[in-house]
């Protein structure tokens, strides 16, 4: 049986394995066709020879059988033709399937390439992960060692805390005792403060008394000294006084009076302190500048005290003040 060129082209498009199966199928079909025809002819000749020997009748029967066999052969050839047609259609379908298979294989190859890339990346990531796990394992080992050390430190800390608690208990007892003693001390201190307040009141009164005594001595003892030192004649007796510097506001002046010096009236303004200090001098100078707005005219500022240091004496002199001591006044 001859094979068409178009069928051969179709076979070339089929996969090698499938092509071999199709070719083997065609060869088998051709072989059976040839064998079937050859065998029938041989049997026919054999039958003819035998029938010639036996009888004309059997020859006619054999011819009849051959006619029937021919009919079956024709039917078989027709079936083979239809099978050939179905085979060609199958081959065509197989070719199309092969084409689709190749396309799918192409896509599969692309996916495989991508998968290989992904697998490579996963392998690298796995390698990095294993390295990281190794590092974490080492870190875990160090952590466990630290935890062990911390546990030991905690044990030592608890022992120290136990000792501290014992000390705290003792301290609490001592603090309680101290609190009781403090309570008693505060009570005694309260009583002492009361006594001290009374003492300060007494001392304050004494200080004022001493100050007033010094002022009184200065008031009676200064006129002759002022006459001697400045040539001042007292025309308004010296006294203690309050000077109103603004409505309802006063400044206390220890010694104040008027005199005449070189034919002109002058104010005698004095500060009297039992123990004068630098701040007392500065306050006196400040008061002098304030009362300047109220008491017009020349002023003779003086300072009276029992005793003061040499540096303060120089400071008083530098500020233009006249210094007098208590021992300069008669008793």
Characterization of this structure:
This protein has 331 residues and is α/β, with parallel strands linked by helices. Among the domains are: 5-121, no CATH class; 231-328, Trna Endonuclease, Chain: A, domain 1. The protein has 5 helices and 5 strands. The chain has helices spanning 5-13, 16-54, 56-230, 278-291, 310-318; strands spanning 233-246, 249-261, 264-272, 298-305, 322-325. A 5-stranded mixed β-sheet has the order 1-2-3-4-5. Helix 1 packs parallel to helix 3 and helix 2 runs antiparallel to helix 3. The chain is rod-shaped, with a radius of gyration of 73 Å. The termini are far apart.
Q: What is the topology, as strand order, of the major beta sheet? A: 1-2-3-4-5
Helix fraction bin:
over 70%
Mean pLDDT: 82
Structural class: alpha/beta
Topology:
Layout: H1 5-13, H2 16-54, H3 56-230, E1 233-246, E2 249-261, E3 264-272, H4 278-291, E4 298-305, H5 310-318, E5 322-325
Parallel strand pairs: 3-4, 4-5
Antiparallel strand pairs: 1-2, 2-3
Helix pairs in contact: 1-3, 2-3
Core attributes:
single chain, 331 residues, alpha/beta, Trna Endonuclease, Chain: A, domain 1, 5-stranded mixed beta sheet, 5 helices, 5 strands, rod-shaped
């Amino acid at each position: 049986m001859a094979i068409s060129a178009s069928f051969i082209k179709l076979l070339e498009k089929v996969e090698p394995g499938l092509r071999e199966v199709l070719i083997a199928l065609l060869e088998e079909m051709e072989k059976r066709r040839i064998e079937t025809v050859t065998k029938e002819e041989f049997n026919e000749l054999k039958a003819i020879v035998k029938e010639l020997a036996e009888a004309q009748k059997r020859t006619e029967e054999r011819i009849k059988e051959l006619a029937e066999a021919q009919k079956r052969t024709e039917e078989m050839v027709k079936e083979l033709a239809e099978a050939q047609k179905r085979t060609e259609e199958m081959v065509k379908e197989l070719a199309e399937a092969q084409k689709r298979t190749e396309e799918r294989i192409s896509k599969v190859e692309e996916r495989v390439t991508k998968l290989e890339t992904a697998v490579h990346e996963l392998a690298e990531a796995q390698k990095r992960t294993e390295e990281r796990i190794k590092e974490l394992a080492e870190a875990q080992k160090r952590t466990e060692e630290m935890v062990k050390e911390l546990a030991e430190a905690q044990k030592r800390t608890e022992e120290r805390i136990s000792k501290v608690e014992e000390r705290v208990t003792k301290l609490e007892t001592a603090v309680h005792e101290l609190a009781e003693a403090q309570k008693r001390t505060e009570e005694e201190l309260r009583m002492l403060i009361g006594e001290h307040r009374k003492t300060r009141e007494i001392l304050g009164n004494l200080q004022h008394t001493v100050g007033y005594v010094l002022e009184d001595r200065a008031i009676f003892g200064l006129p002759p000294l002022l006459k001697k030192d400045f040539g001042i004649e007292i025309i308004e007796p010296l006294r203690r006084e309050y000077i109103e510097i603004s409505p309802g506001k006063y400044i206390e002046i220890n010694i104040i009076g008027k005199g005449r010096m070189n034919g002109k009236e002058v104010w005698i303004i004095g500060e009297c302190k039992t123990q004068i200090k630098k701040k007392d001098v500065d306050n006196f100078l400040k008061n002098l500048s304030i009362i300047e707005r109220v008491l017009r005219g020349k002023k003779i500022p003086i300072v009276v005290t029992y005793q003061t240091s040499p540096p303060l004496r120089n400071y008083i002199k530098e500020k233009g003040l006249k210094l007098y001591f208590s021992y300069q006044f008669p008793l």
